[in-house]
Structure to design on (861 residues):
């Protein structure tokens, strides 16, 4: 596959253009020809090598202001937000789980030496109690003493060339740059509070185009640092994610939800964030909602090492994948779309990218990418997806009413609740008819994945392809049937009879690999 | 979490009370003679009310007590904590033939799930028509639980889907990884395997994972599944089949088993949520070294669990006490 094919092979989605013109993205691999010390893709790297990769990527991925430093106003409060979800003793930690500290250090150095920022804060909220928290769960000990992300000493082997802790690194920068302020904020304990000291929920701000929240609940606990800073640089590590496919620039915001407000007793992860704000069976809505409080002003993506299969350790050898690359870009949606491609996904299948694009956070249209640096397809690695992965199901429905007329219906999520969508109660004898048109670039053979509660007969171009029923647990993609599409427009129709008072349906077409990715070269249309 | 010393001058590191991350497989091992035991922390485990010798004929109640105790010990939480939600479709994959699943295990498992309100549809499945025992069992249970769908599926007659697995496969002569898998296995929510202990000339032991071989339809692979065998090393082919739906729970045992010389009477139930760990314990009980069995070795390397009994938390009878050496077929008799 050449570069053009790699970038432009999926035409399955169109996002609202948000950034005018093309977006620059810098991609630098360890073997980049212009590095002073290029290294093969499988080699461990030194700090000078990582530092140079980061600096070059930022230069290549210059924002519209001309450079990253030009975009940071003098005296600004800049927050660097890496992923430090775990510290090493956590049983689910594996190399590639968190942002490489050398990447964070390099970004810190870039901002400290080249910009006129007044205050630079490293901020994150992870699964570790702070020193003052009296709870006795999720306490990290090092050398017999409590440790936090600030004080945890990583030693010299985990991130060669970065020895010590965040604390020692920040102390060094304070010493070198006395004109600037350097600090660390544990976002887990930085929740916005009201005058009475209680956690305060804040509504997701409306985008300039009117787009609002996507989550089941639109008011969130957020942090003072994220809402108060002037400039936010998201510094994720790129990984496969069990629930939303990939984790990178936007998913990195889950660490900004304060655990002191969202955790349940005895645990220290954002259980209530998932409980209260997930929608349509997905976490994508709250990813974008959290990012909406302060969308990234810039993105630097750590692709030195990441995790395949899922985002934390599955205790299996080979889960860590060495990518030896760094990317930088102003547009978080474009950045994450590129991450999706690099990890073997179709950006169309990453639901939160559609939501973020709807809010005007960026564009997922890779045809508008101005890529500088290395080719994305070179040294491409195959990343294993989660076992239960499914892409973005159809949302563009036609529903036949009692007058036999077809009405377009845009479903917000993968599953359409037919009684609710048609306003027809699921009584005995009722049959719901739903359809969707699928534009195909050519002949395609793949699999039709159905999620179902009820009894369904499914046809493609008037040919019956599936007949089944289900009254048990609803699952997207539970029922799979071979299907063929012809070039041009294809008509899929579904007759669904309710069972147990329910008629639920989801539809996805995946390719010959039957791997859950939307088949190449199709577009859903109503 | 125990302290970890990472070598060299690195200080000790640990994490206190990181909830529910204990991945050590918990496997219940219960002989009909089980008098009781103690946990690692000294907590007593009550024995069976009426323990019987391991070669004795058991009444239905005695067998059920043995099964219940193994399920309790091989699961997390109260009442076994079997991993089935109220609205799920559960398939119980049995083994037919000379070495057959003891129907009392199936009956006991179904009764417990039904009484606990776990599951909405239950399918007993194997590549053979139902025997009289299962027909009668289902009739009886349907009478008692009319709101639940209870059925038998002959996998040899089941509709199939030929698809690649979603993960990397290993059979050398099937590089695309395409297998015909019965829809019942593909579409169910939870898969529980129930198997006797038996030896195998091909893989050493034929336990929970090996029962997947019989899922492959003869209509596609031939009457002796010769086309399946032609796809590569049986260990790799079994690995590929297992990928399509790894067992959610596994139970080994019963009263009658098979080795190279014939029938073995040994009243035992081994149960747990990780089929590889259950099979490893079963193999150890049979006198094998599970880490030396290529099937288990490869499954462990591919992330399906642990095969070393040192890494498995057995509760109930110790493996050494439960051991009843099986006569091994060649070439396994030399190991």
């Amino acid at each position: 596959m050449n570069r053009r094919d790699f970038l432009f092979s999926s035409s399955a989605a169109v996002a609202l253009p948000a950034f005018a013109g093309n977006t620059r993205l810098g991609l630098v691999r360890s073997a980049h020809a212009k590095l002073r010390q290029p290294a093969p893709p499988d080699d461990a790297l030194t700090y000078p090598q990582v530092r140079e990769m980061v600096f070059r990527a930022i230069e290549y991925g210059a924002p519209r202001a001309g450079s990253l430093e030009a975009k940071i106003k003098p005296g600004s409060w800049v927050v660097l937000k890496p992923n430090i979800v775990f510290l090493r003793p956590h049983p689910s930690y594996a190399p590639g789980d968190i942002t490489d500290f050398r990447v964070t250090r390099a970004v810190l150095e870039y901002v400290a030496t080249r910009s006129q920022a007044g205050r630079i804060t490293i901020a994150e909220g992870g699964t570790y109690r702070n020193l003052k928290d009296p709870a006795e769960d999720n306490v990290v000990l090092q050398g017999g003493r409590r440790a936090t992300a600030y004080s945890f000493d990583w030693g010299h082997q985990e991130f060669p060339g970065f020895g010590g802790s965040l604390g020692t690194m920040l102390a060094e920068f304070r010493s070198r740059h006395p004109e600037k302020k350097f600090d660390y904020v544990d976002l887990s304990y930085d929740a916005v509070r009201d005058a009475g000291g209680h956690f305060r929920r804040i509504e997701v701000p409306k985008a300039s185009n009117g787009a609002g929240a996507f989550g089941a609940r639109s008011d969130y606990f957020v942090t003072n640092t994220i809402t108060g800073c002037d400039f936010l640089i998201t510094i994720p590590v790129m990984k496969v994610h069990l629930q939303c496919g990939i984790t990178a620039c936007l998913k990195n915001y889950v660490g900004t939800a304060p655990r002191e407000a969202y955790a349940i007793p005895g645990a220290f992860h954002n259980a209530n964030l998932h409980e209260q704000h997930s929608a349509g069976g997905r976490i994508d809505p709250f990813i974008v909602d959290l990012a909406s409080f302060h969308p990234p002003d810039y993105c630097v993506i750590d692709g030195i090492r990441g995790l395949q299969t899922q985002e934390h350790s599955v205790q299996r050898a080979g889960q860590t994948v060495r990518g030896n690359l760094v990317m930088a870009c102003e547009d978080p949606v474009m950045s994450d779309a590129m991450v999706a491609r690099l990890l073997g996904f179709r950006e169309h299948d990453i639901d939160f990218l559609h939501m973020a694009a709807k809010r005007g956070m960026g564009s997922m249209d890779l045809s508008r990418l101005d890529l500088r640096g290395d080719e994305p397809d070179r040294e491409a690695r195959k990343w294993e997806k989660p076992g239960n992965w499914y892409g973005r199901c159809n949302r563009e429905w036609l529903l036949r009413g009692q007058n036999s007329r077809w009405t377009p219906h845009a479903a917000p999520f993968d599953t359409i609740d037919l009684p609710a969508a048609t306003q027809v109660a699921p009584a005995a004898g009722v049959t719901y008819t739903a359809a969707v048109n699928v534009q195909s670039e050519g002949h395609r053979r793949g699999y039709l994945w159905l999620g179902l509660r009820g009894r369904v007969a499914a046809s493609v171009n008037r040919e019956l392809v599936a007949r089944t029923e289900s009254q048990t647990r609803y699952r997207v993609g539970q029922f799979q049937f071979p299907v063929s599409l012809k070039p041009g427009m294809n008509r899929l129709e579904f007759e669904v009879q309710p069972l147990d008072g329910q008629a639920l349906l989801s539809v996805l077409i995946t390719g010959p690999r039957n791997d859950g990715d939307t088949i190449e070269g199709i577009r859903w249309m109503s | 979490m125990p302290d970890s010393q990472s070598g060299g001058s690195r200080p000790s590191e640990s994490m206190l009370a990181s909830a529910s991350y204990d991945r050590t497989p918990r496997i219940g091992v219960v002989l009909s003679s089980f008098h009781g035991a103690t946990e690692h922390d000294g907590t007593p485990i009550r024995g069976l009310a009426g323990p019987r010798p391991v070669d004795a004929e058991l009444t239905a109640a005695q067998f059920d007590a043995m099964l219940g105790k193994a399920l309790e010990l091989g699961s997390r939480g109260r009442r076994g904590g079997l991993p089935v939600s109220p609205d799920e479709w559960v398939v119980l994959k049995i083994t037919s033939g000379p070495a057959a699943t003891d129907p009392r295990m199936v009956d006991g498992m179904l009764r417990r799930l039904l009484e606990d309100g776990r599951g909405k549809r239950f399918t007993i499945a194997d590549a053979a028509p139902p025997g009289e025992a299962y027909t009668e069992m289902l009739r009886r249970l349907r009478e008692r639980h009319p709101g639940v769908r209870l059925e038998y599926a002959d996998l040899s007659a089941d509709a199939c889907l030929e698809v690649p697995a979603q993960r990397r496969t290993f059979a050398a002569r099937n590089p695309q990884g395409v297998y015909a898998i019965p829809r019942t296995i593909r579409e169910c929510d939870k898969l529980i395997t129930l198997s006797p202990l038996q030896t195998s000339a091909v893989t050493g032991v034929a336990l929970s994972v090996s029962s997947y071989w019989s899922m492959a339809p003869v209509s596609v692979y031939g009457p002796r599944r010769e086309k399946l065998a032609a796809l590569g090393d049986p260990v790799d082919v079994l690995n590929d089949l297992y990928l399509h739906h790894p067992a959610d729970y596994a139970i080994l045992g019963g009263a009658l088993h098979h080795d190279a010389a014939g029938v073995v009477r040994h009243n035992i139930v081994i149960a747990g949520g990780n089929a590889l760990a259950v099979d490893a314990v079963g193999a150890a009980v049979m006198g094998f070294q599970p880490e030396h069995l290529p099937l288990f070795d490869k499954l462990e390397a591919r992330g399906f669990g642990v095969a070393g009994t040192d890494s498995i938390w057995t509760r109930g009878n110790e493996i050494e006490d439960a051991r009843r050496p099986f006569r091994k077929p060649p070439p396994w008799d030399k190991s």
